[in-house]
């Protein structure tokens, strides 16, 4: 029987505290390693904090976010991590890094960008279009972000058709307790 031990690290990232957020991710990665976890998932934009809003207009902030992600990669050996960050190509993307074997093995870019209430993602990000599937401990896994899971013809369906047995959806929607 195949067993995939999944850890969910609901860390409280601080918007703009890239170094502090990376340190939290590494701390929880060590805890997961000690518990024998195969895959640990962190929230949407765990590196930058959510929502980073106009910090995204500073190119240095994007570069520093990528440097913080590299710090996490260096401390990830022996585990698979799903870490929310801001990816940069021609445009910027709300993304999840799939870190495996000490490297970024794949990047998922959020496809459905919310633009209502407190959400203004279309102002900053371009939508992704690919729905990768990867393998951890013999189990095929798809990753997507927040709103992507709500659409019946969205990335979940593409990932299921691509052989995903498990879908990991990372999220950082604001909330109020009490």
In CATH, the architecture is 4-Layer Sandwich
The number of distinct helices, counting runs of at least 4 residues, comes to 3
Q: What is the helix content?
A: 10-25%
Lateral strand order in the biggest sheet = 1-2-3-4-5
Notable features of this structure?
alpha/beta, Nitrilase/N-carbamoyl-D-aminoacid amidohydrolase, 5-stranded mixed β-sheet, 3-stranded mixed β-sheet, 26% strand, CN hydrolase domain-containing protein, C-N_Hydrolase
Overview of the structural elements:
The protein is an alpha/beta fold and 178 residues long. It has a single domain (6-170), classed as Carbon-nitrogen hydrolase (Nitrilase/N-carbamoyl-D-aminoacid amidohydrolase). It is 22% helix and 26% strand. The protein has helices at residues 18-34, 59-74, 155-161, and strands at 6-8, 39-41, 80-88, 92-100, 103-109, 133-136, 139-145, 166-170. α2 (59-74) links the parallel β2 and β3 (80-88). α1 packs parallel to α2 (59-74). The radius of gyration is 15 Å and the shape is globular. The chain starts with 5 loop residues before the first strand and ends in an 8-residue tail after the last strand. 38% of the residues are buried. This is CN hydrolase domain-containing protein. One of its GO terms (molecular function) is glutaminase activity.
């Amino acid at each position: 029987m195949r067993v995939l031990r999944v850890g969910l690290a609901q860390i409280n990232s601080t918007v703009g505290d890239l170094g502090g957020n990376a340190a939290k991710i590494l701390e929880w990665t060590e805890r997961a390693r000690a518990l024998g976890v195969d895959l640990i998932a962190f929230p949407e934009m765990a590196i930058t904090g959510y929502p980073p809003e106009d910090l995204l207009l500073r190119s240095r902030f994007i570069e520093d976010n990528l440097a913080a992600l590299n710090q996490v990669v260096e401390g990830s050996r022996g585990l698979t991590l799903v870490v929310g960050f801001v990816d940069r190509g021609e445009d910027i993307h709300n993304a999840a890094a799939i870190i495996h074997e000490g490297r970024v093995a794949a990047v998922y870019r959020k496809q459905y960008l919310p633009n209502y209430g407190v959400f203004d993602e279309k102002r900053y990000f371009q939508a992704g279009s690919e729905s990768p599937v990867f393998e951890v401990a013999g189990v095929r896994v798809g990753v997507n972000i927040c709103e992507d899971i709500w659409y019946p013809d969205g990335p979940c369906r593409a990932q299921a058709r691509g052989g995903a047995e498990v879908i990991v959806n990372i999220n950082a929607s604001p909330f109020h307790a009490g």
